[in-house]
Amino acid sequence: MTAAMILAPTFALVALIFILLFWLGPMRWGAVARGEVGREAPLDPRAFPERCQQAANAFANQFELPVLYFVLAILAFVTRKADIVFVVLSWVFVATRYAHAFVHVTSNDVKLRFPLFAVGALVLLIMWVLFALAILLNI
Question: N or C end of the chain: smaller count of CB under 10 Å?
């Protein structure tokens, strides 16, 4: 496996984080400019309109479960335990993160969002188990 193949899903996930960030900033700025938030906004993000909160929640969510992916990606790369299964599962995880973020910032329908989160979490768990076994059993 090449470094590019192994790290491409990580780059894609980082891209999602920056997409959300650069979408959230102007959205919040616009809400402030339109007078939709009061002076409490810097101290209370709940003061922003619902659409801003959805985007902010989607952005913040990228620093929860994905943190475990980032750590695993680094460890698998450094220990040379990233194989084709790792790369495929990485892309599945990243796809679930994109889908989850899309639902988060559009309909925010928990009936759609939760299964995407659950699939991503399960895939990540499988990745961690396979990595742990590869390290512990020296395969």
Answer: C
